[in-house]
Structure formats: structure tokens, C-alpha cells
Amino acid sequence: MTATIERFDQLDLQAPILAALAEIGYETPSPIQAACIPHLLAGHDILGEAQTGTGKTAAFALPALDQVDINQRNPQVLVLTPTRELAIQVAEAFQRYASKMPGFHVLPIYGGQSMVVQLRQLQRGAHVVVGTPGRVMDHLERKSLNLEGLTTLILDEADEMLRMGFIDDVEWILEHTPTARQTALFSATMPDAIRRVAHRYLRDPKEIKIKAATATVSTIKQRFLQIAGPHKLDALTRILEVEDDFDAAIVFVRTKTATVELAEKLEARGYAAACLNGDMTQQLRERVIEQLKNETLDIVVATDVAARGIDVPRVSHVINYDIPYDTEAYVHRIGRTGRAGRNGNAILFVAPRETHLLRQIERATKQPIEPLKLPSREAVADKRVAAFRQQVSEVLASEDLGFFLDVIAAIEEKHDADVHTIAAALAFLAQKDRPLQMPDTGRPDIAQLAGGGKPERPTREARDNRSEILERRRDYAEGRLARYRIDVGREHMASPKDIVGAIANEAGIESRFIGQINLFEDYSTVELPSDLPNDVLQILRRARVRQQLLNIRLASPEEASRERGGRGAPPKKPFRKEGGFDKPACGFKARKPKP
Question: Residue 577: how many CA atoms within 13 Å on its side-chain side?
Fold first, then answer.
């Protein structure tokens, strides 16, 4: 069945879903997608053994979307995930795949998010609910989550839910769902406890086992940089300037539109760059590859599909500008460097909320990825000055400068200036388009904002006292919380994930007891239990987020009532898209970077 499926349009999916996939840039189903989607569309249950990152989210999301009735607002699909990060990732994937389905709504629910907000969203209706077991149980207990119309139930990363002690919760949820549902269970491994759940709750499932591609070339040096999205372009150009062994690079992004936009921005900064995507004719693609080979191009910005089969030995670097959701895609990407016995470099940009994807890649490839320290302004300036000196040395050694000596003598006589001052003026003119000194903007250097550490995922003990656990959850669900102020906000580049991690790790407060977080410019507010002991408060006062002391204390009435984005909150800047969709495909102006 899977051998003949080479394109998504060969699958019996609705036209709006296929249109969304085409816009995203998906063309060829991964092995698990080709194996699972036909069975799920046919109504079969699935027992899938596949590593995280093999493309299984699309394998279950696409057929689930295909069967959603947009006119029915009660949840029809429920996806259980072990962590809030994965719940958000899966919900975002559903939203992307359903972008051409007007009226579609997906709702992620997880601990640490305001229960009031979730209740309001559930009342409005959602076609798909993606949640962690604990919070789904909370809503089922409160009867705020109605699963009478549920047609599809998906268990994602079942072995991880077992490891974290959620498997009893999962079974409890399964017992409170309609028996006539379709069920898909995915797990990287199949321990006995998972098989027991599958045999008990799945009906004659089709078993599918996919091996992930894990081999990576030993000559490829793999590094990652934790960097927020707005700083990616500056980080990329710094890396391109400072890497000693840089020759040529393939920069991978997720979408066809992004290839055009990023290639244009790199060209504007003086790099010989071009895009490569599925909208280009085969002739244009071949032209780009040929220019990369003959050194008239140094950087190609590409999507996964467009870059397949590229074999250019001079490619010294592969930059994952957008982290791939699929670990097999990562392996294929970095295989574009380190060719013909040469050493290669693979650099991965990771946004703060994408660290779970980094962990997935490391698990799948069985190789650690080292943190990369972003070059500072001073390091970039030193590199530019060194390159400028080298260029001057080469000219002194190889060029006839007689005519120019006469020009300088005339300037010296007319302006009564010494040759050193004239040389400095000429150096200033030569570096005007690409300053030797990087300007100080007055803001923190992005080298200080970029990080490389990976937070450890906390583990949970197995649950052996269900009644006590449910009672504690009811306490939380009924809002026995107070709002506290902490001295860290947007200007410190803090995120809700940073704040939750600090509170959970430093004070031992489980994430389900952390409520709504509102970020403001120079401070934030967070909901925590109202009866925190003094020793816990003392710990939190000394805790740090982004090198900033939390200094936690109860929020004032004004601070407690101030909502994120509401009255008194910093105004949101209007979204401005650089470039546009009406521009022609990126050009192929070949020019070397200016010194």
C-alpha cells in the first residue's frame, strides 16, 4: 500500500486539506504518513510504533481533520499528549493543516493555563481538543468537556505518558469516552503496559512500525543556538561572517515563501544568495545548483523537498533556520554537508519554546548537539577588520599603485593632510556599506540574549492515591489562587515557559498549580496558591529568570486586575510583513559578500 503513495494528492483527503499542505510546502508523505493515513481514513484503529519526529502528527491529524464536521461545534477529536509543549505543538499543527477550512477551531488545554480562560473557550466550542491527561481529567470531572460527540481519540507518545506516571489517568479518560470511537495509539516503544492498554481499548488495530533514520555522518559537527525568532537574521549573518571554515551554505526554512523572503534579505546584506523551492521550474532549480557548484552563489535558502538530492562538495554549512518537526528531515538536511570525505557543520536555530524538538532530534539521532556561543559585536568587528587588513595586504603585494599614489599626493597637498589621515578617510569610504565597527544600538547585544542550555524535563512519580490527587486538582480548578508580581518581563526577554520552569524547579511547585501568567514590559504577574509558606516565598524571591531576580510578592489590586494586552498593557505593534507575496521568485544576482 505504502510503496505507491508518493504524493499527498494520491491520498483521499479533502481539497482544503490538500491546499493547505501545498501552501505549507508538503509534497511527499513520510513513511508513517503513507502507512497510517489510508487505514485511518478507512476507519481502522491504529497501533503505531514510531519515534517522535517521524511525521506522525500529520499521520493522525490529516485523517482526523478529513472526518471533522465543521457544523458540529462539540469536540469530535481528542488528542492526549504527555506535556504542555507537545500539546501546543500538536494544536498548532492542526491549525496549519486546517488553514483552508473556515470556521475550524482547535483548543489546547493543559495545566498552568488559566482554568477560566479554558472554560470560556470550551463554551464557545472546539472541533479538536488537544490536552494533557491531568487537565482533561479536570474538565471531565467538572463536566465542562463534553465528549458525547467524540469520533476519534489519539494517544500520542504513550510510552512517555507511562514514564511520567499518567497511564492510569489515560485509562480513566478512555473509560469516559464513547465506545464507538476510532482510536490511534502511537508510541516510540511498546512496553507491556502500553500493549495492555492497546489490547483493552483498541478494536482489531492495524499495527504499523516505522524505523526512524538515525544515521548521521561522523564528520559533521552539530551545534545549536537558542535564539528568539526576531533575532534569527542577525544571528545568521554573524555566524556566516565569523565561521573560519565557511565556504558555502544551505539554509533550511519551512515554507516556500520564507525561502524568497530570507534570500532577499541576505542579498540586501551583500551575500550571494538565492532561493530554492517547489514553485520554481526544474530549469531554474538546476541553474541555482550549478551556480552553487561554480562558486557564483554562496548561500541557497531551501525547503526540504526542493533540496533533496543536492550533492555539492563545497557546502561547508547546513543552517536549520527553522527547526524541522520531523527528525528524519533533520538527518536528511544535515546530510547535504560533510560530502566527499570533507568535514561539515550543522547549526540548528532553536526558539525557547522549541527545546522539546531539540531533545527529540538528540534522542532519535542518539547524538548530543553542542550549544553554540553567538559571536559578540566585538568578535564580528575583529573578523571584519582582519578581512580588511588581508585585502589591503593582497593589494599591496600584487597591484601597481602608481596612479593612485599620484592621486593621494594631490590630496595631501591640497588639504594639508598627512597620509595616515587620508588612508583613514579612504578606509571609511571602503567600509561604508558594511561597517568595520558594528553600531551600538543601546539595546542588549543579541549575543547576550542567545542561550544554549537545555532545560531538564521534570519527571513525575507514579500516582497511587487517585482520590487525593483529584481533590488537589479540584482545589486548583476552583481557583484557590492569588496573583503575585515578579520583577521580570518582556524587556528581559522572558517567556511564560521561563517563569514556569523557574517556579517549578526552584520552589518545587508543580506546573498544574501555576495559573495564568501575564507578561508586561518590566514585570509580570503569575497566579500561584494563595497559601504559599514563607520559606517557599523566600526561595522564589531569590530565584532568577534571564539573570533577573524574581523578587516575588503579592500583586497590588491594580496589578492583579490588569490583563495582558488590556488597559494599561503595552500596545501591540502592528504586524508588518517585509517584502510581499506579489514579488517574483527570488533572483540569482551572484555577488560575493562585501568586506
Answer: 9
Three-class DSSP category at 439? coil
Rounded Cα–Cα distance for residues 492 and 550 (Å): 12
Query: 339 versus 268: which is more confidently predicted?
Result: 268
Backbone angles phi, psi at 564, to 5 degrees: -60, 125
CATH 3.40.50.300 intervals, the chain: 2-209, 220-375
Q: Cβ contacts of residue 492 below 8 Å, gap of 6+? A: 522, 545, 546, 547, 548
pLDDT tens-digit profile of 38-56? 999 999 999 998 766 667 8
Pick the CATH number of 220-375 from 3.40.50.620, 2.30.42.10, 3.10.180.10, 3.40.50.300: 3.40.50.300
d(CA 559, CA 567): 11
Which range of 97-101, 162-166, 359-363 scores highest in mean pLDDT? It is 97-101
CATH architecture type of domain 2-209: 3-Layer(aba) Sandwich (3.40)
CATH architecture assigned to 466-561: 2-Layer Sandwich (3.30)
CB 124 within 8 A of CB 160: no
Name which of 575, 548, 568 is nearest 493 in CA terms.
Answer: 548
* Cell numbers linked to 96: 496549519
Strands of the 370-371 sheet, one edge to the other: 273-276, 299-302, 248-252, 315-320, 344-350, 220-226, 370-371
Place of cell 508510541: 187
Contact call for residues 24 and 62 (beta carbons, < 8 A): no
> Model confidence at 440, in pLDDT bands (50, 70, 90)?
low
